[in-house]
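Input/output pair, single chain:
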Amino acid sequence: MTMDTDQIIAEDFINSHTLEAIQAIEKLEYEDIADFIHKIPLDLAIKILLQMNNYKAAKCLELLNMNLAVEFIESIDLLSAELLLRQCDKKFRNTLLDKVAQKKAAVIRKKLNYTENSVGAYMKPKVFSLQKSLTVTETKELMKKEKELIASEIFVTDETGKLEGIVQLAQLVLAEGKDQISSILTKDAPNFFADDSIHDISDHPAWLTYRTLPVIQRSGALIGSLHFEDISKKNLKKDAGLNKQMVETASALGELYWIGLTGLLQSITNSD
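Output:
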């Protein structure tokens, strides 16, 4: 494959200034990223996609030629493959795994399944996340493209996908555009493991403060989000209902969330 000068320069920049390059690439449309991925060596494509936001990387993976997508999954470690495929469309994921080497596909499928009453079975695998080096303005730009994933809490991860903390929507509304996410990050926010029992966490005191909480693996990797509404609708507690105070608090937080989201979306619109 013959490369033009621009592509050679782009690849050299990615290898020399990976973090800056990833931040620039993530601002492109998914189709443009996928087109670029098709033109570069596999090892460089792996470097790019594995350091991107997992949801964004998954959207790009879905746009790749299936043979390239299979080669990509077969070339990365199991944890990275699992985290990436959790964000993919289920039909695409199953089609891809049908073509991946049987032994690796079987392990990945097993990791993607959870027991009926586990947190993993209730969580939403597609989750919007950020890195703490971003500014509030940059965050709002990213949120424009992912409005359907925005919840009352936004999770912050490091470059490997491990959870670092939570930023609440209200904090974004009040923060200055130049502020870094790290300055408004709550590092000691609660989280759940995917293999926790849903019954054990249904009345967790964290629900008095948060409507959405992160779900992680034992390694610390963010793999999803758990919403209070999803567990409260299931009537999980043995006493036939969640603590009344928690339900009332969640309702109040819900109202604050919509007020905050409205204000944030207005600020995004006004910045266009």
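Confidence is low (pLDDT under 50) at residues 237-242, 246-253. The longest helix spans residues 244-271.
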